[in-house]
Each structure stands twice: as C-alpha cells, then as structure tokens.
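Bump. Still looking for Glycosyl transferase structure tokens.
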Amino acid sequence: MDARRADAFAFSQERTAAESELISFASTRPARRVALVGNYVPRKCGIATFTADLTEQLARFRPEIGVEVWALDDADDRLDYEGVTGTIDRADPGDYARAADAINASAVDAVWLQHEFGIFGGDDGAMVCDFIDRIAAPLIVTCHTVLTEPSANQRRILEHLVERASRIMVMSRRSRDLLIANYNAPAPSVEVIEHGAPDRPFGREEEFKARRGLSGRAVLTTFGLLGPGKGIERVIEALPAIRERHPEVLYRIVGATHPKLVARDGESYREGLKACAERLGVADAIEWDESFVETDELLDQLEACDIYLTPYPGLQQSTSGTLSYAVALGKAVISTPYVHARELLADGVGILIEPGSTEAIANAVCRLLDDPIELAAMKARAYARGRETIWPRFAAASASLIDHAVARSAQPAPRVRPSFHAVRTMSDRTGMFQHSIGIVPDRQHGYCLDDNVRALMLVNLAEGLDPRERQSLSMTYASFIQDAWNPDVQAFRNFMRFDRGWCEEQGSEDSNGRAIWALGRTALDSPDADIRAWANRLYDTALPSIARSGSPRTIAFVMLGAAAMLRARPHSPSADALAAGADVLERLLGGARRPDWAWFEAVLGYDNPRLPQALIEAGQTLGRPEWTALGLETLAWIAERQTAAPGHFRPIGSETFGREYAQMPFDQQPLEAQAAIEAALSAWRATGDEQWRVHGTAAWRWFFGANDRGVVLADLATGRCRDGITPRGANENCGAESILAFQLGHYSMLALAPDIAADSAKTPSGMRVEDRNRDGQRPLAYT
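Sorry for the wait, here they are.
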C-alpha cells in the first residue's frame, strides 16, 4: 500500500479531533430553526435526495438546528411523505402564498430553498419568485445549476433569487464565479460548500463484489436516473475495445429511467441502449439494475465497483451527488469535464476525458485496468480527497452557512437622545435635502415639502438646541413651506430642484396633508410665538382647499393637524375638518371590511397606523367614543400584522403597496416604525392599556436590531438612520425621511415610556441639558 493510500486508510478509522470538536460544540450553541424547501424523498430525483441528506446530516451532527421540511408536490402525483412539516403544490400559486404565510408564522430563523429551474411551477419555475417575495426570515438559496447561457426568463429568475438571498450556497467555485460575474451576486454572500458524502472504510471492493457474485470481475459503474444526458451510449460503444484487452470487465448501469422520460416515451430509450449492446456483441458484459435505489443500497453498489464513470455530454452540470459519493468511497473516476468533475477530480484524483469520445473512454479504462498500481493509487487519492466532503464536515459547513444568514441579536433600546448632527448636515439655507448617497447629501434630487414639514416638527421638539440655532432652523424650514404654498391653485408644491426651481405647480395630496399637520403641530409646539403666529395664519389659509381631499392618508394627516390646532386654539375652525375626516374614514372602513380584513382599503400602503391614529385623536378631541373605538380596533388589526411571530416589529414592506389583500415583508422603512410608535402613544393615552407601550417599544427597538435581519439602522452618535431593511440587510443610504423618522420616534418614546424618558435628557456624552417649551414644560411628543 503506498503512503497516500495508507494515510487515507488511517484517516477513515477515526474522526479527526476537529470533527469531534465540531460535534461536541453543537450542544453548547443556541438553537436554530430552519425551513427547508425543495423536492424531498420519496420523490425520485437528485434534489430530493440532497434535501433528505441535508436534513438527516444536520439532525445527526448538528442537533441544535431544528429542520422543518416543506416538500414540493404534484397534484397528479401525491407522494407519501414522512416527517415533513407541509407540502406545496408546485403548480398552484395560492399554495405558495399559503406556505409562505405558514412559514412566517412559524418564526423559523431562516428559510433554505433548493433551486433548480425544473422543480417549481410556471415557465422555468417562475412561481418561486412570488414565494420568496413573501418570506420574511433570512433566505438561503442552494443553486444546484448556474447556467452560463440562460434564457432571458431564466436569468430574470436567478437574478431575483440572488437579490433576495441573504446567503447563497453553491457546490463549485465555478458556480460561485458565475453568480458574481454574470448575476450580480455580492461576493461575501456566496459560499462554496461541496456536496456531502458518506464516511465509509476504504478498500472493500472484494467484499462487496463477493456479495453480488462479482468476484474476479473488473467492475465499471454508472449510476443515476437514466436519460439521454448521461452519455451511457458512449460507454457501451467503448466496451468492445475494453473487453478485447480485459474480457473480465462488467459494466453495471444502475438506476431507473427518469420518470418524465417514462411518461413521455416509456422505456424506449433503455431498450435502444440494450439493442445497441446486442448489436455490438457486449450485452453479456452489461448488468442492468433498473430500480431507483435508496442511499444505503446505492453506496453498497458503489463499493462493489473499481471504476466509476460519468460520461455526461453536457458540461454545465454544477453538481453530481453520485460523483461525490464515488470519490468519498475511494473509487477511480473517469469523467467528462463538467463543472463539478473539473474541480473534484483535479490534481490526479480522477481522469477527465473529452465529451462524446468512445475512444477516450476506452483508453482511460484500459489505462487503469492495465496498471493495478496506478488504479490503487488513484483510489487512494480519491478517498483522501473525499475526507474533505464527508458528512460531519458538510454538516459543519451547513451550520456555519445558517449562522451567517441568521439575523444577529438586537441591541437594547438605548436611553440617550440622538445627536442632532445628522439633521444639520442634511440641511442648507434652503431646506433639508431629500436623499443621500451613503451618508453624503445628494443634491441631484434637491428638496421636498414632505421632509421639510417633518424637519419643522422636529425642531419644535428637539432638546439641547441653542435657542438661536432653533430659531434659525425653524425659519429655514418654515420659509420652505411658505414658498411651497401656491395661491394660484390653493395648494402646496412638493419637489424643488437644487437651483430652487419648483418641479410642479401642485404637489401630491399627501404632501399637502402633511403640511397642514405640520402647521397644526407648530402652532401647538413651537416655543417661538412669532413662528406659532405664522403657522396659524398659513393653516387658516390652506385648510379649506386641502381638507377637501378624498385620499385616506391625506384625510388622516389633515385630521392630525386639526386635532393639534384645536389643542392650541380651541375655538379654531378645525373641528369641522376633524369631524368630516372621521366620517369619511368610518365610511371607508365599512366599505372595505371583510371577515379577515378590518381595514379602510383593500390594499395596505405606507404610514398605515396614521389612519387609526387619526380616528383615535378625533374621538378623544371631539368626545366621540365610537371613533376612538374604531381607531383602537383598526390599530390593533394593523399592529397584529406588523408583529412577527417571534414578537419583533415587522413593518408593512413597500412591496406590499398596491397589492390587494396582500402583505410582503420588504422593503421595510423607518417611516413605518415612527408611525407605529406615535399611533401606539395615541392609543395608550386614550386607554392606558399596557399593550400599546409594548407595541411602541417593539417598533422603537426595530431601529436597533430587533428586526428581520438583525441590522442596526440608527446611530445615536450622529443621529443618522439607514433608509430601511432589504432582504440582504440594511439600505446603507441615510435620507432625510429616515433620519427624521428616527429622531421624531425618539421624542414620542419619551412620552410613551417614562423609564426611557428619565435618561433621555442626557446627550450621548452624558451631559445634562435644560430645554423647555414656551410653557416651561417638556415639549409634547409628536402626535
């Protein structure tokens, strides 16, 4: 026995210390729960076998990871699955939605999807796209095939998977390179984990040959579902030349015909191969096993062979499970250079031959059978290479992949005031910029009314500002709002270019409604009497035309402004606008309601909690308890939909907008967390119910990592906030809307959670500040 073979044999007798450490470490690590989605046994295909292997080996070597299997199924071919959590009818879009909802409700830590174009419903398996769009947990995707020349639809599907995935597993370096170069996959997210393989002793060919009555034979084997893509014709055509030099040779073809081929053509393909063998006079040198063998039986049959053949004509195959098994069992392998074979058989582990060449197959087989020493050495090299892929190592790599994908633990919600620095750096003498590139203000998109009215509301409340700076900033934002008013059309403009030119004569209804809201809040909250007087005048001028809007959110914004104005000026004309708005929302709720949809519209949009908040404020301000009750009922409904099964806040994602009776988890935006906090504050003030403190605090903690991706969005030291959460993590930009949502959310938390308020008068450095409003009291929270 040569040195390499001896080393390999010794390796097989005991686990390495590293493997033992990995297994024992499992009991000390926190539990994870993962939903596996893909084909599953007893379906007869490689993906089903892989999913079953993954499930079995994680349970064996990583028991701290709980696995829940969702098997793809066919309505016309119902299988008897064992140990699965659920099934998905691959051709039914509604079943994908149902399964996604169930997986989200189960609060798994990650969803691990096995992808191959042929296993999902729709053209090229397109139904997978809507399914993953509905998944909230971090998504892991195993790309079993990565095409170098995909169709347009195949490219679209795979790029969508790449965009959604937190982590991508491939089984070859070539596949990783293709995903990065051709499909825009981020390099850090793509991990190579070679196909796992069994750990069996080395060199037992004669024992297993004897069990099958094959002693004294040189055994070649090809295994897999039979079909034209296996290249078996070429091996049969090579047998006359091989048998001329080695009459003892036997070629074993193991595997049932592919079910789809049987359904279309019956067994005509297999019969054609047999006829070819008869014609060439080698039928007696071939043994057929026409069954679909289970894994243990497959391994026994592989142990009985000397040379394993994978003469596939197609070279794009990323993965072959049986190739991995053969190498791990220490078989000499002859293969065409498809992707997996090129990598696994490098450095003399196996022999690569040109595809479609009968002569190349014959020469390679005879070369090994002519030289028993070289054959034994190649087997030893294969066995040594296979130690890198055995199940304990595969399970450890899979566990690491899950850890990389799963969201990090949230930080405690801090009790210090965020710095005002971010607001300053996003503002100039004109107003507050809309967008940023990273943390750098983006002048190209200029300014908008929406952000400047929010900025004014923040300046009214912000603690720690020098009175001169507060006045200066208030004047800047108020001036922007004043200039936005277009008396010719009795409406506010919204978008302004960097050169201070307006982009339209009239802005959106919602931006106009927010302006009324800001003016009402400013009349109530500003510590500057002159700014309050200005807000009162412009409010009275603009309210009549803007209050006529029919947009539900515009109505809600106007109502919130009117409620604030009534507290500032109890005899203002705002009561009519507040009551009219509440009447409209009440009618909308009656028209859109159905048993499972207690909402004002058939779709969910942005700022959803503002609608019930407006009803609560109207009921409390005008003494109409029925409106308060409706507001509390609908706020509870939307709060339930914005609470994930583990209990963290999961805002309605912007991808939900416009989809009737649907909810998609991404992209999540800070505006939604702010709205949830402030609506919860209104509900708590109306009821004193502790559930609203709990819900508001969950929305606040969303900024600090208690979210679906475990990413921290807010930075107390600078006052910045990232623009939201995508399937991959945080959107790194820090636009005005996000900064203001975070900062305004903080001031509402002061009112909602006194335990946080106690420390919130401290700056991040710990310095105490004194900053009171015009009545000598802490400013009212932003509601």
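Residues 1-30, 757-783 have pLDDT under 50 and may be disordered.

Edit: fixed formatting.
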